[in-house]
Specification:
This protein is mainly beta. The protein has no helices and five strands. It has a domain of 44 residues. The strands form two sheets. A three-stranded antiparallel beta sheet has the order 3-4-5, with no helix packed on it. Strands 1-2 form a two-stranded antiparallel sheet.
Amino acid sequence: MIEEEATTTEVEEVPEGEQVEEQVEEKPVSKPKGKRQKRKARFSPQIYKFYKVDDDKVTRLRKECPRCGKGNFLAEHSDRLSCGKCGYADFKKTKN
């Protein structure tokens, strides 16, 4: 035979005239948020730095990346040329 289990709940009775304090969960205090920082406008590449135009001829002023292809120029450092896209580096020869 299966016996049914009964559950009982206890209810506290509050006498009239007394107030019951409700338990409220306290939220964690967050730090005050500061002003949002404005985003800087992205700097578009200045194309005139990479090309030189003479009458009808256009010449490239910088060397292009052999891995990435046309349109990706190598950055000129004091001791090397490097590509910012793929990481290719071409070291300059030093005079000894």
